[in-house]
Amino acid sequence: MLIFKRTKKLLLGLVIAATAFAAAAGGIFTNENVKADTTTTDKTLQLDVKAAIAVDAKTGQIIYSKNADQILPVASMTKLLSIYLVLQAIKEGKLSWDQKVPVDSASYQVSQNTSLSNVPLKKDTKYTVRQLYQASLIYSANGAVMTLANAVFGSQTAFVNKMRQLLKSWNINDAELYTTSGLGNDEIGTGKYPNAPAKAQNKLSAKDMALISQKLLQDYPEVLKTTSIARMKFNNGTSETEMENWNWMLKGLAKSYSELPVDGLKTGTSDSAGANFTGTVHKDGHRIITVVLGAKHANDEDTSRFEQTQKLMSYVYNNFTYTTVKAQTKFKGASSLPVYHGKKLTTQIATKQGSDIWLKNGTSVSDLKASLSGNKKLYKKDGLEAPLAKNKTVGTLTLNSKDQQLEYLNGSSKLELPATNTQKIQKANIFVIMGRAIKNFFTNLF
């Protein structure tokens, strides 16, 4: 009786397998979580600043950070955000480079304050957008950038509101913005932001400033043609003002360093902020952005911010290697995905496109830890549904390094790359499918 029952069970199973063509068992893939054991703050680098950050200008990878999320006064580095909106207005046809714009009362009054960084504007004179743009970036002219703000949106308040909107669109939600120039709200007369504290000042984090600078360089790289100018004269109608760039790391200025060909971006200085500097350098074919906030500022001749920036830039180039993860790279432990009803039950996986990454010296791409996840929209049951064309995007490869923590300005803590199958997978015929189902049945039975 026992034999009869078992035979009956086998026959019934064969019928079910033949009619339903049950799926064969596919391969198995793992989703490995890799956690870094270090941070982006290296204790061997001692920077005498309140906060700092170094990032790759292209990818946004954070190479170094110190208190990078702390909100601090940024002073005139605000102008980088203002200039972004000016360049956007020019691109959209709302302004033109040779367009002459009048000077409003608030901007005029600020421009006459010799205790602030300014070119003296005249009430009865119109200036070209190009003149005001150059004065804003090279000489940090406060009245000039205020005049540009009025030309774009009609008032200081309207311009600041647009600045706030732009930051929110970039997922910067911790900013405190009140002025277009970076001056305190109590320093711009009738242009002050309404219903705000008199002593209100612009505050951002080092990470925020790095992201603003990255956006500016990516969307308007031509800005470097102006930020790299060491000296220029400003013609205000009856006289000229000699403008020497406040970025003393530029070639020919006090803190230039031949090993670091700095070509931007912007300083910021105030009693509350101390000395700030957002810098950028293109060396060995790769550009980085650095931000230092709250460096010492004993007097107007103090070069501390540039010395700290030089230390930070040198640290990056001396301790990290710019490395390319090439397309079609395979990683151990994350090199295959299961296939449903394919002639082959697994398909080989590699990176679909290349990417760049700064790795600590001595670390190579082969040292990276990878985890693999398949695109479930392409799955049927437990595998990618066959047929599969070669080089189809079938999932995501997530890369981490055990020797350093990967961080990016967009908030990601890992490098994610599209994964592709390296071979064409045809669908198995009905007999192969039936055979696998029967084999699977007997395997599970015994």
Description:
With 446 residues, this protein is of the alpha+beta class. It has two domains: 26-38 and 324-445, D-Ala-D-Ala carboxypeptidase, C-terminal domain (Peptidoglycan synthesis regulatory factor (PBP3), Domain 2), CATH 2.60.410.10; 51-295, Beta-lactamase (3-Layer(aba) Sandwich). 28% of the residues lie in helices and 24% in strands. The strands form six sheets. It has a seven-stranded mixed β-sheet, with no helix packed on it. A five-stranded antiparallel β-sheet has the order 2-1-11-10-9, with helices on both faces. A hairpin with a 5-residue loop joins strand 1 and strand 2 (62-66). The longest helix has 19 residues, at 2-20. The protein is elongated and about 95 Å long. 42% of the residues are buried. Mean pLDDT is 89; it is low at 1-39.
SSE arrangement:
Layout: H1 2-20, E1 51-56, E2 62-66, E3 72-73, H2 79-91, E4 100-101, H3 105-111, E5 127-128, H4 129-138, H5 142-153, H6 156-169, E6 203-204, H7 206-219, H8 224-227, E7 231-235, E8 240-244, E9 262-270, E10 274-283, E11 286-295, H9 304-319, E12 320-325, E13 336-340, E14 346-351, E15 355-360, E16 369-374, E17 379-380, E18 383-385, E19 393-400, E20 415-421, H10 430-445
Parallel strand pairs: 13-18
Antiparallel strand pairs: 1-2, 1-11, 3-6, 4-5, 7-8, 9-10, 10-11, 12-15, 13-14, 14-20, 16-19, 17-18, 19-20
Helix pairs in contact: 1-10, 2-5, 2-7, 3-5, 4-5
